[in-house]
Write the structure tokens for this entry.
Amino acid sequence: MSTPANSAPPNGTPSGGPKRHTHKERTYNVNFGANTGSSPGGNSGFNGDSGGGGASDRHQGDRLIHMIERIEIRSDKDIIAMAKAINHLGRELYLILGMRAEELNGVLSQYKGKWYTFGAQSRIKARLVSAHLKVSAEAAKALGVGALKMAHAFDRHFVKPEQEAKQKRNGKQARPTFTIGED
């Protein structure tokens, strides 16, 4: 075995001895792509789901996203169906992200590092780190609430005026509405 031109040992350590490895945590390769079948780990996607697996392998969010994408808006029922599907997706994401944030907070608050860098502060730092994921959970909640507000606004601006115009045309009286405190 010959030494390189700069006369450094072949394994890269200055002493020529065995290479020192200080990072002992195990690392994992994660593929954040679509299920194309050309990924190095086989046909696995975002969270290790197999491409041909059944419903037990996949998360409900995948089905909800697929359902939202497939809706063609042709009538008012399609708009309501889209709003319900987006609301369900937002609720699902809100629950998942909220639980994962709590899990992250629990794991990081138990971390015991060097005495001069961590200690009781690890709980505070864990809360600061997990707060970002909680903000994402709140954004997912806003997604679901926004879909319901969109459906209500559609009803108020399009459906109700259409119904009122149809009732006036037919000469029917509008149904009494719910009121509080008025006689």
